[in-house]
Amino acid sequence: MNKILFASCLLIGFNLQILAQRPSTVLKITEPELAGFSDVAIHRIDSLLQQYTNKHLIGGATALVAKDGKVVYYKAVGKRNFNNQPMERTDIFRIASQTKAITAVAVMMLYEQGKFLLDDPISKFIPSFANPVVIDSFIASDSSFTTRPAKREITIRDLLTHTSGIHYSQIGNKTFNAIYSKSGITSGIGVKGHILGEDIIKLGKLPLAHHPGEKFTYGLNSDVLGYLVEVASGQTLDKFFKSKIFDPLGMKDTYFFLPKEKQQRLTVLYGEDEAKLVVKKEATFPLNGDWITDYPNTNGTYFSGGGGLSSTAYDYSLFMQMMLNKGSYNGHRLLSPSTVEMMTMNQTAQFGLPDANLGLGFGISTLKEKAKLGMSPGSYSWGGMFSSSYWIDPEKNIVAQLFINQLPMSHGAIHDKFKALVYAALK
User: Fold this and answer.
1) How many Cβ atoms are within 10 Å of 83's Cβ, its own excluded?
2) pLDDT tens profile 241-269
3) Which of 167, 117, 130, 155 minimizes the C-alpha distance to 306?
4) Quick count: other Cβ atoms within 10 Å of Cβ 2?
């Protein structure tokens, strides 16, 4: 009996080893019908994007949809720039806050190496965050303030869920815009002469909007996490991303700052006129001082983990497919399945958010999202300030991406319409 049991264990172990060695799903372009989509219905996306472009609501876009690793939609519409060059599928877009998911993966890779626990205080790695204080009063005339001690320190988990109390600079509220501006803290993208570590160390000495873990406040959390990656790994964030994430996944067009040979593929960042129509004018941004609208085409020094990357629809889909594959892609494992599961489960149940929950680096959809647009509960996503959106649906095995570089963007409903058309095309 013991021999039979031993033999059975060997067989099970052998089969598990074979399964572990099988390559993860790799993206391949195919006909929609072969992946469970209606060919006619999926191409309604053509009409949607073209309609918005023809009406001058957007300047252009690229979109990609894949199911079961099969790319069923991958197109570009509109113009790349003011010279009327046509948009191409391989054009590069500023992905802004879609950077956050990549930073979260970097953090969790280091977590898997035993560098830290998620409930460790961030001050263990960035000492300026020790003894945090919460803002008590603010005097607008001179941007002075009073504080009270925070109830506890900020943890790495707080940063991953945007519950640390750290606000955003320049795009946050008036109080923290003023406080951060006085200390030279920026939003981290399109700025000159800043260094990530220097700014984050200064940020650690400034007051919080609320006690850590008390509620959700969208802020510079991922930039802090980016510096955590640098401290824990001994590499600058751009080098860590390239060597540990981009190269293994085959992401050849994702950068903080573009090499010269790829700069011509950067799309213009469109603006809007008073009628909310696209104009041949570069976008404005609420910054104090100069903002470089083509910042990816410069030799910058600030690697913003919260918003600094630029990428293509296909490159970012490789990252999404890795997550859908539970941490691996094309023979390269970045994360364990259990870590991906932890990242994509609700981490903020105590807040009772109405429409979505928060994982570690992602928003997690609920039944309300399914009722609204058809997206499966448990799908995870985020978006970018320059009008980009993506989502990953583990139930339907779908990844999808829509890139539009425009600021301001008054026609954000296009993202929900895109999502609705994708699910409506499923057979």
Assistant:
1) 8
2) 999 999 999 999 999 999 999 999 999 99
3) 167
4) 6
